[in-house]
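Human: We require from you a standard protein entry with sequence in single-letter code and fold as tokens, and nothing else.

Assistant:
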Amino acid sequence: MKKTVEKLAYNRSDKFVVLSGYFQTVLEQEYGVASDRIHRIPGAVDTDRFRPADNRSKSEESWALRTAIGFSSAFGGSFEEWASIG
């Protein structure tokens, strides 16, 4: 049943961002996702550019802006060894 739900969700998605070549291969081979719908971006962050907010109100203002422009994203995953991160 889990795989059926995953396939339904994947078929309704336009694009995918994955952190590893392994998961890209899983999407392609096990779920039939076309490679042009998958974008692999290795997990990393420029800590000079992106930092935690100095205070809570600054963070809340940033969240309000993201909500106002209607942009959202989600991460579903883990930090398992096969994910090539961690």
Q: What stands out?
A: Strands lie at 16-18, 38-40.
